Amino acid sequence: MKSPSSRLTVFLIVLLDVMGFGLIIPSQPFLAKHFGATATTVTLLGTTYSLMQFLLAPVWGTLSDRLGRRPILLCTILMTAFGHATFAAATSLSMLFLARALAGTGAANISTAQAVLADTHPPHERSRAMALVGVAFGLGFVFGPALGSMLFKFDHRAPATFGAILAALNFIFVFISLPETRSREGQSARYSPSVSDIFAVDPALRPLVFITLLFITAFALMEQSVGLFIEQVWVAASSTNHMERATNLTGNFLVVVGLAAILSQGLLVRKLLKTTPELRLVNAGLLTVGGSLALIPILGAFGNYPLFLISGATLALGSGLFNPSMAGLISLTTPGERQGYGLAVNQSAAALGRILGPTSAGWLFSKSSSLPFIVGVVLVTAAVLLCQRVPSRPRN
Question: How many domains does the chain fold into?
Answer without folding.
Answer: 2
